[in-house]
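Project outcomes to date are best conveyed with an example. Our students and postdoctoral researchers have been running inverse folding experiments weekly, and each run begins with a structure described purely in tokens. The record below, which covers 427 residues, was selected by the lab manager from last quarter's runs and is presented without edits.
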């Protein structure tokens, strides 16, 4: 088998950061350098020129995702120093043909990005017939967040008389699987550019590509996948992934012996009535989170030590109370997260008012049965159940980006300079 090309996708917005990451990636074994769409949109063709000056002998890929004016955009990229220019496979054939004419004139190749193509197999054959040199089985970032797999797209393309690339959230394991399935070019972005040690991350992928294999992994349930993803991130990562939404307010009392992750069992109660909160324990599956609204009352507690011990016996993953808890001295000795807005010794009466698994408001957030929660020392964030997998995936990307920024700060940078805050202030 021919050694597959490793292409690093510089999907950043700051050229100064991209240059340093590219140098480390090349040192780790990257063959081609992609000036990613965010970088070209942010820095223009100057990003291609600068990287060409740094890497005079490397293949540069300009990921323009061209959808119109094919030859013009190819000319711009080629004159700036690109060897390969990306166009959208979904673009009209007139655009593809014009791009190919420009590519022939300037001696570059065209890579067609199959993102969002309705019939990938038929379109790939058509593009190959038009003369496109590289077909890219690409699943975009937003699609990845919803669970779409570039390896599935790669499998639909079959045998084609052109080079095949694959891209979309690949890591060492999936990159190796792509190589084993016949990919000529394996494109890796976040796993490399968000790593603390870019050179080592690149080298690990290069090693995997040179020793490809397909491992048959045990299929995990969606809930298990969501839980596994959330275990790697923090509550702040999740609220960032939700675009600053989902965080509960007012949880002043926090016992957090470990991270809390689980699906909500909701309880609406009134005036410290502890009947429904205690009954709800028996509605919980292992790992579920009890979320209790005490109707804003903090002078009477609907929850205490005995209820907490009962919840532990049931395997409950944590308790969140928009209201008071009591027996706090005992609760803080137990191995279960408990969040409350207040601590109060008074207990209410078990009258049975309220409802279990109704939609409630808790600490300013709407919570439904089956919504996901994550809680740590920073607080609690609610994730809508229908977006749980997507948000968990986005939170992991937030976490990975912070890993890289943290490393650049360790090397002497500052957050303001790395983020180029003045440049990106809203005008």
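After processing, the design step wrote out the following sequence:
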């Amino acid at each position: 088998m021919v050694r597959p090309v490793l292409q690093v996708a510089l999907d950043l917005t700051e050229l100064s950061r991209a240059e340093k990451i590219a140098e480390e990636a090349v040192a780790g074994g990257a063959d081609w350098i992609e000036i990613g769409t965010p970088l070209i949109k942010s820095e223009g063709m100057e990003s291609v020129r600068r990287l060409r000056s740094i890497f005079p002998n490397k293949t540069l890929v300009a990921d323009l995702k061209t959808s119109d004016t094919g030859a013009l955009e190819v000319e711009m990229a080629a004159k700036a120093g690109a060897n390969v220019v990306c166009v959208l496979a979904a673009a009209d054939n007139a655009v593809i043909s014009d791009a190919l004419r420009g590519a022939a004139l300037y001696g570059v190749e065209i890579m067609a990005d199959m993102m969002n193509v309705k019939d990938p197999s038929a379109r790939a054959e058509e593009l190959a017939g038009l003369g496109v040199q590289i077909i890219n089985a690409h699943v975009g970032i937003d699609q990845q967040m919803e669970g779409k797999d570039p390896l599935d797209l790669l499998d639909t393309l079959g045998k084609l008389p052109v080079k095949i690339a694959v891209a979309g959230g690949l890591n060492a394991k999936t990159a190796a699987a792509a190589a084993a399935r016949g990919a000529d070019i394996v494109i890796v972005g976040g796993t490399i550019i968000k790593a603390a040690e870019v050179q080592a991350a690149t080298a690990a992928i290069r090693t995997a590509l040179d020793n490809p294999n397909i491992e048959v992994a045990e299929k995990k349930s969606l809930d298990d996948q969501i839980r596994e993803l959330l275990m790697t991130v923090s509550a702040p990562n999740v609220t960032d992934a939700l675009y600053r939404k989902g965080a509960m307010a007012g949880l002043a009392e926090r016992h957090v012996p470990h991270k809390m992750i689980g699906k909500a069992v909701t309880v609406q109660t009134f005036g410290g009535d502890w009947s429904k909160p205690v009954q709800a324990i028996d509605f919980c599956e292992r790992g579920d989170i009890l979320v209790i609204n005490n109707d804003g009352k903090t002078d009477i507690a609907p929850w205490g030590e005995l209820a907490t011990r009962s919840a532990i016996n049931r395997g409950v993953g944590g308790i969140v109370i928009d209201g008071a808890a009591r027996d706090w001295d005992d609760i803080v000795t137990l191995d279960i997260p408990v969040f409350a807005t207040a601590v109060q010794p008074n207990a209410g009466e078990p009258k049975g008012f309220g409802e279990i698994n109704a939609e409630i408001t808790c600490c300013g957030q709407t919570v439904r049965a089956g919504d996901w929660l994550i809680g740590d020392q920073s607080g609690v964030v609610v994730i809508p159940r229908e977006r749980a997998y997507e948000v968990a995936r986005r939170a992991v990307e937030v976490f990975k980006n912070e890993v890289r920024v943290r490393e650049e700060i360790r090397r002497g940078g500052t957050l303001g300079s790395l983020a180029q805050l003045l440049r990106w202030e809203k005008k």
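The CA atoms of residues 194 and 402 lie 8 Å apart. The domain at 226-389 is CATH 3.50.30.40 (Glucose Oxidase; domain 1). The training component of this project remains on track.
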